[in-house]
Hints:
The chain is built from 13 helices and 15 strands. By secondary structure, it is α/β, with parallel strands linked by helices. The strands form two sheets. A nine-stranded mixed beta sheet has the order 14-13-12-11-7-10-9-8-15.
Amino acid sequence: MATNSRREFLKDAAMGAAVLAAGPAARALGANDRVRVGMIGVGGRGQELLHEVLRVPNVQLVAIADIYSRRREEAKKLAPEIQTLDDHRRLLDMKDIDGVLVASPLHIHARHFLDALAAGKDLYSEKTMTWSIPEAEQCRAAATKSDRVIQIGLQHESSGSLADARKWIKDGIVGKITQVESWMSRNTPRGKGQWVRAVPPDCTAENVNWKAFLNGRPERPFDGFRFMNWRLYWEFSGGNVTENMVHQIAWIMSALDLPLPAAAYMSGGVFSEKDGREVPDTIVVTLDFPGDVVVTWQSTFSNSRYGLGERLLGSDGTVEHVAGANDMVSGRSAESIRYYPEKVNRPEGAALTGESRTQNHMANWIDCIRSRKTPNATVEIGYRSAIAAHMANLSYRRKQRITLEEAMSAQPEF
């Protein structure tokens, strides 16, 4: 953030902490009570979450807030009974809302995260938890002081594949894991870059609260293309690392119970489509972890053959999780997790196929609002995966290996 913007953010965070300390009252819920929720941000991802929460039994979507009139109108069509607001603070003032879903652009996550907790609301915050490391520190500190139920939108934390991987590792059949390979690949028609969206005719300064979108960034005239395509620019986004890698890194860190990385290195560039984007579309990340573990993640936006996956390479066996790898003949894809023994150390070991069921990530949050239990994707894994992602991006932008100490002392860069 710019100096003044950072000062304003810290001031707002301090005010939020003061409200948290006051301990705002929340409606007590029984096991069968209807949970009333609101949403901040109902763009593409927000509307997906809107559909998800509407499918959870005994949940009522009360209101949504969005700074773009089109999004408010679209949400109203999906849920005609809701109240639509143009300012998230008005939604947070509603006393009968139990929980709030945040699906705003990445660079506004922290503001909405802190404001929701300060208002005494339980919270579902989309990944990546924050746009920067200082914001991650602020949100983690606020969550620690709060008694609110907080779920981060790291859906892989509710997956059956993670439960299977954890079990196999705990059972000792994987042995000493020193290396993890992971990848994610996509493709688009030539000339049509990933994430590039058309600007609707009504995307104008009259229909968008541009100042709220900038969220402390340097003022400039309204830019409909940047508003619609914020994922392409560093000042609003962390690119593919915060959109996709963070899911898999969180899964890996949870499976192996890894701390923060000791160092990160990222190479790549804008190679697939030269369309003016700032964030890279071709990436190789290396994360060094304490305890002699190295994790790699590679990604391209110009080939989708191998989908996404992870391989945990152990002395006694391999855990391979794949999703989206295309069958050569049918073209179909399927998700699977399997264990393969290393015969040199487990000569009698047998191959295994995971059978654990994936939980509904949204329903898990709603259940925890009622029970006050801890959701599957905690603030802690949201924090650790965010730090790992930001370390990778810092390395790429500085063109050098970044240690944890260097990353934690670095100032955010637009």
